[in-house]
């Protein structure tokens, strides 16, 4: 089924070697196995200076023909998506490849009827229901560029993203069910759209049946629009022919400065890479049921719920709810119910479930599991072993997959059952990935048993091509720190065996429960609160979330009740970014440690937040050294 699936460690080594000495030949051989309307003229064109990266230039394709049409003959009646609702006793849905094809075509026609054309940007803000996958694929079908925004972001965040991408249409739901909560998606969109004149149409899919306002001339119901298409007869929708380098989607992600940037992925390279990494990392076998617990609002959902598995003709399980609802055994119930073979989840979920003990795991039938995966943040050894022993029962390999929104797909990881694994280590690069470690001066750190900043020195097909509307920001963020290298922002060590261990971000980006949040963004949000003069945000180790958010805040005045003011600030952050960015701790301070030039010394704050008081380094160069003592005393 997958001629390029590696079957042994030797095959991995050979493929890796081949991918370094002849990257173009290597990727061309893999790309051959996809459906192209026209083959590429040139496999790769690149320079990391401009930067300019093109894979399979001149190639013509549509990713949905690879995810849907080409499977109809052989897999038409196979489940493409299994959908498990939030409530365990609500009916689940099984959508075969033929059903999915029909639904995508139908909704693609709806989009066309509503004026969407190739190249238009469409914002998608929905819960985890099959219509979310259908909406994204329908955009891809007609060449519209989707920008999915995670259902936990606030109106302001959505507005920023819609404005940046100049979206003309929004697809949303009346609401979303997540655990015990109903999230009023449409109402959030209504607030967001006050400042978004480019949006001419909103399509609203029914899920929670919560009352919503429908604006005449702008808002229409998904179901009504589908009916209209049905009355027109033939639901087929020919796929738009796309150039390999046409944009497929934008996904916003946080960096160390400014507002989130729109990471751009293109059609050809992304498809090949998402598929290759899915098929290999998880060693997917036809018929296996694969369950990734991420949300489609993040890159993991894009690449490993939707495009990777579907392009491979796999059965992908989509879960609407959360691992702890109605109880902490929910994931294990799902594994049991659908005989899940591959489970891909996040360390934060594992740690939170560990906290409930083995009660919710015992007596669940997990015998169908064959492979386990972890993504999003470093996995601590304790969580790794718990996952291995209690979920995998000691017989399932774990793939600790390191990658980023920008990389489009998995970069450094064990290959399940094929290459070695080591707790806490992402281990070895996949074929086609050339990592290097550099010191602060950009000098390569060679040999083993070394640490440095992680860079990639050669392009891979899944890499981002630009940041939407701002190519200079793309260059500055990723290619200017170290000349000629893509800089990941991560610190990394390479052990005596040459295995890579990612140690976390070295820039001002936090990873909270696997969600990426810029400290600058959180500070901006806090500073918008009336009465706040200035703030500084750092991360600190958090038992479940991986990192927690610690905010040091100078407030001009607070309502005599400091606790109430903290709550007000949390509310402000929720409004500006979303609940995921709410600080775990807020400490009011009278000043911040600053250099004479006015720069906040985050290093000192980080140490204090971590409770490491002894090792603050030289504080004599500070403007007001006394402030450090005060902050230490008030530490929460
Ligand atoms: O710091 C790394 C961490 O998550 C960052 C990327 O975040 P995001 O773009 O949101 O993508 C998350 C899903 C791919 C990285 O820079 N990270 C991701 N996976 C791992 C990881 N850190 C350690 N180990 C991992 N397996």
From TrEMBL:
The answer, when asked if Ligase is one of the entry's keywords, is yes
Cited CDD domains: ACS (cd05966)
Q: Organism's domain of life?
A: Bacteria
Alphabetized, the UniProt keywords read: Acetylation, ATP-binding, Ligase, Nucleotide-binding
Where in this chain does the record put each AMP-binding enzyme C-terminal domain? 521-599
Q: Name one GO biological process term.
A: acetyl-CoA biosynthetic process from acetate
In terms of Pfam families, this protein maps to: ACAS_N, AMP-binding, AMP-binding_C
One GO MF term, please? AMP binding
First-tier enzyme category under EC: ligase
Q: What is its EC number?
A: 6.2.1.1
Q: Which residues form the Acetyl-coenzyme A synthetase N-terminal domain?
A: 12-67
PROSITE patterns documented for this protein? AMP_BINDING
Locate the AMP-dependent synthetase/ligase domain: which residues?
74-459
Q: What NCBIfam families does the database record attribute to this sequence?
A: Ac_CoA_lig_AcsA (TIGR02188), PRK00174.1 (NF001208)
**Family note:** Belongs to the ATP-dependent AMP-binding enzyme family.
State the name under which the record lists this protein. Answer: Acetate--CoA ligase
């Amino acid at each position: 089924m997958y001629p390029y699936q590696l079957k042994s460690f030797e095959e991995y080594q050979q493929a890796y070697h081949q991918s370094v000495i002849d990257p173009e030949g290597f990727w061309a051989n893999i790309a051959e196995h996809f459906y192209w309307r026209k083959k590429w003229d040139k496999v790769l064109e690149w320079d990391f200076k401009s930067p300019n990266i093109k894979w399979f230039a001149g190639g013509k394709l549509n990713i949905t023909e690879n995810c849907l049409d080409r499977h109809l003959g052989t897999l038409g009646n196979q489940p493409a998506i299994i959908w498990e609702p939030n409530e365990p006793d609500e009916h689940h849905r099984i959508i075969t490849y033929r059903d999915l094809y029909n639904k995508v075509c139908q909704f693609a026609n709806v989009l066309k009827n509503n004026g969407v054309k190739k190249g238009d940007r469409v914002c998608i803000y929905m819960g985890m229901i099959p219509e979310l996958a259908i909406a994204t694929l329908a955009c891809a079908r007609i060449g519209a560029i989707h920008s999915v925004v995670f259902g936990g972001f606030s109106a302001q965040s959505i507005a920023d993203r819609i404005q940046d991408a100049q979206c003309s249409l929004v697809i949303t739901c009346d609401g979303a069910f997540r655990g015990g909560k109903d999230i009023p998606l449409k109402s959030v969109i209504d607030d967001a759209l006050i400042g978004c004149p480019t949006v001419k149409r909103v399509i609203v899919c029914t899920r929670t049946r919560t009352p919503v306002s429908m604006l005449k001339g702008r808002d229409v119901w998904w179901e009504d629009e589908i009916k209209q298409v049905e009355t027109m007869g033939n639901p087929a929708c020919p796929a738009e022919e796309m150039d390999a380098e046409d944009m497929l989607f934008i996904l916003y992600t946080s960096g160390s400065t400014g507002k989130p940037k729109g990471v751009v992925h293109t059609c050809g390279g992304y498809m090949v890479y998402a598929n290759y990494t899915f098929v290999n990392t998880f060693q997917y076998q036809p018929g296996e049921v694969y369950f990734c617990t991420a949300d489609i609002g993040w890159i993991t959902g894009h690449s490993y719920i939707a495009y990777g598995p579907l392009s491979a003709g796999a059965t992908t399980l989509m879960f609407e709810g959360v691992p702890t609802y109605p109880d902490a055994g929910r994931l294990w119930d799902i594994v049991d119910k659908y005989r899940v073979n591959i489970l891909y989840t996040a360390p934060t979920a594992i740690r939170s479930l560990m906290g409930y003990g083995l009660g919710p795991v015992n007596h669940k039938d997990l015998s169908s599991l064959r492979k386990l995966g972890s993504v999003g943040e470093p996995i601590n050894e304790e969580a790794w072993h718990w996952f291995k022993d209690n979920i995998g029962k000691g017989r399932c390999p774990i793939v600790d997959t390191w990658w980023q929104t920008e990389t489009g797909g998995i970069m450094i990881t064990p290959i399940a059952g094929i290459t070695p694994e080591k707790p806490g280590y992402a281990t070895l690069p996949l074929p086609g990935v050339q990592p290097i470690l550099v010191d602060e001066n950009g000098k390569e750190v060679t040999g083993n048993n070394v640490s440095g900043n992680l860079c990639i020195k050669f392009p891979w097909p899944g890499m981002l091509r630009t940041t939407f509307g701002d190519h200079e920001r793309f260059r500055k963020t990723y290619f200017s720190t170290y000349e000629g290298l893509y800089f990941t922002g991560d610190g990394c060590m390479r052990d005596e065996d040459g295995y890579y261990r990612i140690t976390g971000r070295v820039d001002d980006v936090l990873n909270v429960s696997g969600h990426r949040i810029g400290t600058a963004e959180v500070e901006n949000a806090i500073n918008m609160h009336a009465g706040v003069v200035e703030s500084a945000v750092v991360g600190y180790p958090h038992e479940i979330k991986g990192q927690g958010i610690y905010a040091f805040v100078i407030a001009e005045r607070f309502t005599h009740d400091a606790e109430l003011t903290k709550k007000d600030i949390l509310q402000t952050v929720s409004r500006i970014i979303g609940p995921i960015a709410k600080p775990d701790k807020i400490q009011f301070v009278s000043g911040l440690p600053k250099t004479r030039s006015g720069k906040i010394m985050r290093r000192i704050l980080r140490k204090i937040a971590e409770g490491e008081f002894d090792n603050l380094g030289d504080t004599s160069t500070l403007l007001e050294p006394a402030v450090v003592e005060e902050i230490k005393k008030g530490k929460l």
